[in-house]
Amino acid sequence: MSAVYAGLEAGGSKFICAVGRSPDRISAETSFPTGVPAETLGRAIAFFAEQRKYLPLAAIGIGSFGPLDLRPNSPTYGYITSTPKPGWAQTDLVGALQRTLDLPVAFDTDVNTAALGEHRWGAAQEVDDFIYLTVGTGIGGGGMVEGRLLHGLLHPEMGHIHVPHDLSADPYRGCCPHHGDCLEGLASGPALAGRWGRSPGALPPDHPAWELEAHYLGLALVNYIYTLSPQRIVLGGGVMAQAQLFPLIRQKVQALLNGYLQATEILAEIDQYIVPPDLGRRAGVLGAIALAERLASDG
Ligand code: ZN
What we know:
By secondary structure, the chain is of the alpha/beta class. It has two domains: about 5-115 and about 280-299, ATPase, nucleotide binding domain (Nucleotidyltransferase, domain 5); about 125-275, Nucleotidyltransferase, domain 5 (2-Layer Sandwich). The protein is built from ten helices and twelve strands. It starts with a strand and ends with a helix.
């Protein structure tokens, strides 16, 4: 009986647990709302403990909301650190699963994990330099440079960059609790709701909200393109379920770059350059399985 991998997508509103080997070989899956840490982690641990009675688990991959401590030599490696989510600051996520399940644990941000899922099985399969940006309740970005997941000093926080904000055109002050009108403060789902007084799903496709949304996201993407030179950009998350955003964002990016970058991918093939995820909402949990697979095959 060959081993399978365990994947945990630890989201701020929902935990998704699965065991399996690939998108079409998932043997069990469950999800439940994110409550207090002890109860939520207990449910995840109980699920994996039950599953391993039927199939041996080789490793577990965890993609989590953050901020996180990903520095292997840090005393708080594997912790969720300074999150404003009540009860979750300084939670030892990796330790809780490692102690009870006694499995090798791979750990990364939710967005890097989703990026790995798209690289392994989805929209970023043939590129080793790419960005995965999620635009939803918050905005976060991960991805790869030369085939390695981006980490650096801590981990990228692409949602908190600052983009030009013309208060005369857009008097909305922004909703980021840390920075006000950073990108997340101006372009996340809660920002759309705060500015227009309606949830993003209730705004019709021809509403001016989308032109402004594409403007902010286009500014952000141009900054990422100039600094990281990605071969592709995958845009996921609840706000990006609004399909009309894709052509608007592509136009904004081309207009802002203004012909400066002479790459066919951007000039003529932008429909394949800025794309939705192939795995959709499953990118996170499948990416967690891919994280575990990488750990087991490296080890
Ligand atoms: Zn911010």
